[in-house]
Amino acid sequence: MIRALLLLLALSLFPVGAQAAPAKDWSRTVTLTREGAHVIGNPAAKTQLVEYVSYTCPHCAHYVAESTAPLKAGWVAKGLVAVEVRNLVRDKYDLIAALLARCGGPAAFPGHHEAIFAAQQTWFGKAIALENDPPDYPATMGQSTRMADIASRIGLLALVAGRGVTPARSRACLADQKAMDAVLGMTNRASADDVRSTPSFLLNDTLTDAHDWGRLRGLLPAPAK
């Protein structure tokens, strides 16, 4: 009886077929830089990738559609590469999208970011139509109120509402001066980084000649197997 109890105790301490805990999925880690940019992945990764993007840039939408899944699975999730997303704002619609992408905190950013780009053709098409027939806003209407109305007209409020951001929360994000300063600060920094177009990429603080996923992929370290 004693031997049997000891055997059961040993098996409970060292279960047969026990496996090591799964490796950490770094793609779920999102942090903010001091400047307010979002970093997805292991902050201590040997390869630091900076993406300069604009939400009204069709080439950026194409890049995000092509790169997100393979970059996440092959490099970011395994802790090999950290991706820092910086805004290079081109117009008021881009600014509105950038502020809404930030709405909900760092953990919500990657999903908002991808969803806004995935729906770019729809909402930006409405933005072009609105630009051709702009609303007659009263001079007394504040900037954030105008931005919220535009976001509603082009469907961005509905898009992020479908991701759990209430209209009231969206309006608060569009009125967030600190967030706006961060987005515009990244846009100003692009000049210092010699970035002239989007998408553009820096690897470990060095500007590359890549402007699409095919070219960028060849510059990344070999993915872990």
UniProtKB/TrEMBL annotation:
Domain of life: Bacteria
Keywords for this protein: Isomerase, Signal
Leader sequence residues: 1-20
Tagged with keyword Signal: yes
Pfam families for the chain: Thioredoxin_4
GO molecular function, one term: isomerase activity
Keyword check for Repressor: no
Thioredoxin-like fold domain segment(s): 35-220
UniProt protein name: Protein-disulfide isomerase
